[in-house]
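Justification of computing resources. Each target in the renewal requires a structure prediction run like the one illustrated here; the chain below, 308 residues long, is used simply to show the kind of job we budget for.
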Amino acid sequence: MLLDLVFDYDCNLACDYCTITPAMRRRSLSAAALVRQMRAARAEGFDRVSFTGGEPTVRPDLVPLVREAARLGFEGIEVQSNGLVYAQPANVERLAAAGVTEWHVSIHTHREEAYERLVRRAGTFALMRAGLEHLVARGLAPVADLIVMRSTQAHLAGAVDWLADLGVRAGRLWLVSLTDGNAANVASLPPITELLPDVFAAFERAAARAFDLRSLHLPHCLLGPWADRALDPAAGGVRVVTPDAVLDLRDAKLTPRRYVPACEGCPARGDCPGLRPDYLARHGDGEIARARGQEPTREGRDRLPVLG
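Resulting structure tokens:
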């Protein structure tokens, strides 16, 4: 079981699709509160912990918190980061020595100009790349997180090649969310069926490069031959601790877990993460209904995407 600790919502980037609002950035958890949550989780049998945010590496207490997690006996200790501080090898060494075992790096996109346009910080692409290179050189097997949205979809296969050339061997596709700070940016979230040719191309490239590529937030029934690449982020039990609440990941805004009438009777229902409510509110259930040979609901019929 995984304990997901959201330190705070502060960050050294300002991604244009970020769901974090200015008000959220002012909220945080103290180190003492985080330690209490880790101790309680270990007593309940949680064996993995993830440090995230915001950007956890901007917290000066990250290293001692990682040490405490290792002392408490967490077998897996993950840091979810944008990787900028890893451009300094000493930062990688400190975290590795403290006990980090899993390194997830949000690369957003692999094209320099597009990256810096997305994160709205000049000069950061080189830092992100250097951070990845240092993790690979140290043999720490980073996992790259790629955002899937209208501006990045056509370049997913290229990102797989770019990562594989750097020596990265695994990646995750994250579908952009229309919640909180990104709620009004509806153009960033196209229908899944519009994304699929580019997603399929990325999976094909990953297979050719021996690259472990998985997707979050895309249902099995739309992934066709790549259905086994769908990940359910809440599988196995995940407790999320944020400055605002403690909750099961299945109840979080970014977790799908919404099913439509066409999902009934689907053989993949037990493993499929379903759809997120923000996606259904934007595009309805027409794609799922068509994939299952059924009629969409009124909401889905009204929002049925036009396919070429």
